[in-house]
Amino acid sequence: MADLRDTLQRHLVDEKTGWSMGSFGAVAEFHQDKGEFLEADAPALFVRATRRGAIRLNAATVDRIEPVAYETLSPKPHRWSHALALCLPVKEAVGNRRNTLTELGPDENAVRSSDRQAVLFDMGLALPQCDFCIRTEDPDLLAVLRENAGRSLFDPANPAGGAVLKAHPHRVALTGIGRVEVFQKIGGPDTGGVSPPGPHTHLLPQLLKANRTHSANTPIPDHLVPLGYLHPANPVMDGMGADIDFDLDDHARFQSLYEQFARPDLPVLRKIVLDALARKMEPNDFTAPADRFGRAALRLTLRQQHRLAEKFGSATYRELVARWREVFDKVTDTAAADDDAPGH
């Protein structure tokens, strides 16, 4: 898929784009800062690394990726999130699902050559589509990990969990489309209880219990599983989840991806809503979609029109959008929203 290849390569060199791989409740993220020194840079081979983390997409797998662009509601009524999910068919997406700490040997496929002698351990999270690993050369940590291999890291009596939090080994998320590596500290007591800026990991046991491949608020077709995500710059919040002034260019760039890669009916629905607004239709004359993702698309369209109207709309249009939001964008409906920045 030539268009997807171009999209991935273009965003790989865009410092405003983030990437993630993992599963619901366990995610490794790669972010880069403008001008940050690159330790590996081969966009044609889908590789990027800094001193803080790395990403590599498997060039042989890229053409099998099925992309799904989507937007999700934020619990905060003036915001939303968006991403491009990088999916494979269910049968191709299955991970090893190891459920105990398991030594895998030297990480010979590490992005940086300097990391290829370090030893990789599957953490044993039994994720549906990702092997979530740690990597270390620390002899003290290696001794603890090897002594407790075959045990669950969630066993309160297993000292390996505490040793990992203390030593801050690299984390490596391995999927059928590639890997994300994080070299920074694990978010916790040593980082003030939050994840550090830039590449970081989230491990959220309460979400892992759901044993899902992705959030129920993400419109991924049943025959596909998301293994990774491309996160273009968000027009209303930064990478740490803080509000920013509405960025029209970033909004337009994602809308282009949305038109190309979203579930086909959702951009059509957006056009219907925009047409109704342009004709000054009152909200009570509009029938909301029966589908949950259609209803979310309606709400998202209204949030975006609200932000656009703040900058460019007339008072009459702002009032019309406000009336639609009173009917369709109920801020109390938090079940359809996802946390914007878990761990931050």
Automatic annotation (TrEMBL):
Q: What is this protein called?
A: Uncharacterized protein
Q: Which InterPro entries match?
A: DUF6925
Pfam families the UniProt entry points to:
DUF6925
Q: Which organism is it from?
A: Shinella curvata
